[in-house]
Structures are given as structure tokens and as C-alpha cells.
């Protein structure tokens, strides 16, 4: 049965034009092929198609310029961009300019035909599961604020306190600001803790009470998911979670991190921080590490499979059980990380931040995040990763564990217990840490 919807194929490669014309014809789509912009514009004056398959690299006026023109002259005309030589920047730019999708060459014809069918069906997009996004001001409400008496106790461990042997420096780009930045890690004496310091020497201990808007968050029983930011005296240190996770798993209890507003980010993981700690070396110190030992369960959120929640429970050691369930290409992923049995350095640290192209685009337009996002995230669009190859099939759940480990270190002490989490964000992580802090101090 003829589908009758007209498709223009704009590509300078004769073989591509011939193949697509033949395949589209077999599927019942009338197709007109154009080898350059001049032929395309001539055809466009005669008849407006239902869809354009547009190559980026064309002689004369390239595909991106054609796309920009079409958005002005034919704003509702869907365009699928094609290229065999473009990277993430071109794909992101094409989608920003209004392309409905981006296909890499060599084309996978079955996938292309599926996309064409969806675009031309005029069906509303399928409702997708929410993706927890640290570009949004998401809040985590503490549904059950009652904390069992004596639920958390500080106890001496058999491990010595630790600091770094040497000073080390890391330079990179700020995830939120997009500016070049750096951090200097230096040794500190026993019982000093993890201290962040701005360039004007404002000190911000890495503690839950120093997160941005802490008093307001406690008063409203809600916490922002806009990454993890420390704030004091109008000074901020942003995106501390990945560094804190690396310090926590290396057993570092005392260190000074001097930074200009934002911790540098290399690729959205904690790899560079574990490498930095290895470069500096670790020095055992006098005094035992005190652990925050979980004696009674403490929970944030409701234990429902379709709702975000997490809780801690007694456990001899430290373990995180994480579940996520998001739209394709993620789906449901589960993973348990045990700090004694598993390797943080190889199993968790390399896992990168992730988000959808749409979330990042909106956040950039509203000024919530900077250009650092494009270089440091697994970016997803239309059910697939568009800018990189995954380091693990379940890299997404591994990164959620990384974030949670970093946020838990805001307690100020290593946690001895099991944390069970379902699709948590920084907001839920911080809400749990706040409850643990209250349990320790009351």
C-alpha cells in the first residue's frame, strides 16, 4: 500500500541517493533525490515534501546552513540529518537547530525506516519515564521525619586516619560554569576533616550543614538536586561529589582542597580524582577513624518501586544497593557495590554523569549549567547514546552509586551500614545524610 508521503533525499554521494531512493520506493514512499542545495531549493519551490533526509557535508551550501534556512521558511518540515564524518558537536548542533534526529553513516536502513515511520505518523511521542536530572531544581521530601533514638552511633574503627603524602594539582573545566578551573589537594593534620577552601581563603568543611541553602532545606524538609554545592559567607564550591567519593573510598579523612568556586571536571567520572590520589600517595596518621555505625533503619521516601527512595540499615561493612529504571537506552539496572569485595577504582570511579540532550539544552538556555556539560556527560537522545561509547553496559547505575558515595561523605564520617536506593538524586541523598546527622547529634 502506498504511503504517498514525499521524501527529499539531499546527499552528494550518488550511491547513497540511489540506495535511499530504491529503499524508500520499496516501502511506498515517493522520493526525490538532490545532489546539492541548488537542486534541493529548486525542488522545494515546486513542492514541499513531508520529510527531508539531509546530509551535513554538501558542496557549496552545507546541510547545516540548509537546516537553518528551513527552520525559518518551513518551520514545521521535519528534517533528519545524516553524516559519516561528524561528531557530537555536529549532532548536538543539528538537534539544537531543529532537526528531529541525526543518523550516522553508514546508515542502518531498518533503523532509518523506523524513524521515518515515526516522524511521518504524526503520533504524539511516547511518554517516557522521568530521568533524574541534576540540571533541575528537583526536591526530595522527607515523608517520615521521625528518627529512631540511638539509630546512629560513632565508634572507633581499627583503621588509622589518613591524609595525602604530597600536594597535587588538577586542572579542568567547571561542569556548571564551563570555565577553566583547578583544585590543589594538600595534606592536613589528624582530626582536621575534609576542608574546601576558596581562593580568598574562606573555608568550607565538607559537611551536610554547609550545603547550599541548608537551613531553608531543613525548614521545608526538601533538598535541591542541583548537584552538591557547599556555601558559606557568599562563597561557593560546586560539584564536590565525585571528589568526595574518591576521598571516601581511599580512606582519606583529612585533606585541604583549594579551589576557585568549582571542582574541575574532566569526563564526568571520578577517574581523574582516583588518579590524583594515587599520584599524591596516602599517609597513615595518628588516631583511629570513627565510623558512623547504623543501628536502626533510617529512610527517606516511600518504599515503592515506582518512587524514589533510599534507606540505611545495619550491616557489618559498607554496601550500596542501587536500582534505576529510566527510558531507553537505560531501562532497569541494578547493582550492589561492597567496599571490601569490589573495587571502587575499576568498578565505580570510571562511570560518567549522564543526561538527555533535551534536559541539557533547556538548562543551558536558562543559564543553569555551562558548556562543561557537553564534554562531560553521556548524552542521550531519542533512545540512544549520541556522543560516546559506554564504559560498562550498566554505566548509568554505577554512576548513581558514585554520586551517592560522594554525598554520604558529607556526614563527616565513614558510614558502616547498607544503603538501599531506588532512582535517587542528589536531593534524596542529601536528605538522608541530614537525617543521619540529626540521629548522630540528638
From TrEMBL:
Pfam families: LpxC, Response_reg. It comes from marine metagenome. Keywords: Hydrolase, Lipid A biosynthesis, Lipid biosynthesis, Lipid metabolism, Metal-binding, Phosphoprotein, Transcription, Transcription regulation, Zinc. Its cofactor is Zn(2+). NCBIfam families: lpxC. It is an enzyme of class 3 (hydrolase). GO terms for cellular component: membrane. It catalyses: a UDP-3-O-[(3R)-3-hydroxyacyl]-N-acetyl-alpha-D-glucosamine + H2O = a UDP-3-O-[(3R)-3-hydroxyacyl]-alpha-D-glucosamine + acetate. Pathway: Glycolipid biosynthesis; lipid IV(A) biosynthesis; lipid IV(A) from (3R)-3-hydroxytetradecanoyl-[acyl-carrier-protein] and UDP-N-acetyl-alpha-D-glucosamine: step 2/6. GO terms for molecular function: metal ion binding; UDP-3-O-acyl-N-acetylglucosamine deacetylase activity. GO terms for biological process: lipid A biosynthetic process; phosphorelay signal transduction system. This is UDP-3-O-acyl-N-acetylglucosamine deacetylase.
Amino acid at each position: 500500500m502506498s504511503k504517498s508521503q514525499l521524501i527529499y533525499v539531499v546527499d552528494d554521494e550518488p550511491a547513497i541517493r540511489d540506495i535511499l531512493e530504491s529503499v524508500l520506493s520499496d516501502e511506498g514512499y515517493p522520493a526525490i533525490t538532490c545532489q546539492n542545495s541548488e537542486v534541493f531549493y529548486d525542488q522545494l519551490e515546486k513542492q514541499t515534501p513531508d520529510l527531508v533526509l539531509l546530509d551535513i557535508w554538501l558542496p557549496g551550501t552545507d546541510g547545516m546552513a540548509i537546516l537553518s534556512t528551513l527552520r525559518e521558511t518551513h518551520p514545521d518540515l521535519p528534517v533528519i540529518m545524516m553524516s559519516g564524518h561528524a561528531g557530537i558537536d555536529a549532532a548536538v548542533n543539528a538537534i539544537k537547530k531543529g532537526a528531529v534526529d541525526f543518523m550516522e553513516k553508514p546508515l542502518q536502513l531498518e533503523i532509518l525506516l523506523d524513524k521515518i515511520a515515526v516522524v511521518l505518523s504524526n503520533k504524539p511521542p511516547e511518554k517516557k519515564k522521568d530521568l533524574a536530572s541534576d540540571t533541575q531544581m528537583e526536591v526530595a521530601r522527607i515523608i517520615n521525619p521521625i528518627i529512631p533514638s540511638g539509630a546512629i552511633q560513632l565508634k572507633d574503627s581499627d583503621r588509622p586516619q589518613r591524609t595525602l603524602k604530597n600536594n597535587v594539582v588538577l586542572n579542568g573545566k567547571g561542569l556548571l560554569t564551563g570555565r577553566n578551573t583547578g583544585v590543589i589537594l594538600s595534606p592536613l593534620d589528624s582530626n582536621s576533616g575534609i576542608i574546601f577552601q576558596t581562593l580568598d581563603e574562606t573555608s568550607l568543611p565538607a559537611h551536610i550543614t554547609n550545603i547550599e541553602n541548608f537551613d531553608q532545606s531543613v525548614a521545608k524538609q526538601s533538598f535541591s538536586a542541583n548537584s552538591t554545592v557547599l556555601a558559606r559567607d557568599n562563597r561557593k564550591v560546586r560539584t564536590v561529589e565525585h571528589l568526595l567519593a574518591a576521598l571516601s573510598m581511599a580512606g582519606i579523612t583529612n585533606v585541604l582542597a583549594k579551589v576557585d568556586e568549582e571542582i574541575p571536571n574532566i569526563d564526568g567520572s571520578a577517574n581523574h580524582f582516583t588518579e590524583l590520589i594515587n599520584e599524591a600517595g596516602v599517609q597513615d596518621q595518628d588516631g583511629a577513624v570513627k565510623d558512623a555505625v547504623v543501628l536502626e533503619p533510617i529512610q527517606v521516601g516511600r518504599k515503592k518501586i515506582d518512587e524514589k527512595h533510599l534507606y540505611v540499615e545495619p550491616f557489618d561493612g559498607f554496601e550500596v544497593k542501587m536500582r534505576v529504571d529510566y527510558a531507553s537506552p537505560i531501562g532497569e539496572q541494578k547493582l550492589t557495590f561492597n567496599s571490601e569485595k569490589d573495587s571502587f577504582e575499576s568498578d565505580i570511579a570510571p562511570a560518567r554523569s549522564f543526561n538527555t540532550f533535551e534536559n541539557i539544552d533547556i538548562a543551558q538556555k536558562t543559564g543553569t549549567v555551562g558548556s562543561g556539560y557537553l564534554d562531560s556527560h553521556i548524552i542521550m537522545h531519542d533512545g540512544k547514546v549520541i556522543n560516546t561509547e559506554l564504559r560498562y553496559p550498566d554505566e548509568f547505575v554505577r554512576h548513581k552509586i558514585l554520586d551517592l558515595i560522594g554525598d554520604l561523605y558529607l556526614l563527616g564520617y565513614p558510614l558502616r551500614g547498607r544503603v538501599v536506593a531506588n532512582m535517587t538524586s542528589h536531593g534524596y541523598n542529601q536528605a538522608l545524610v541530614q537525617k543521619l546527622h540529626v540521629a548522630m547529634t540528638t
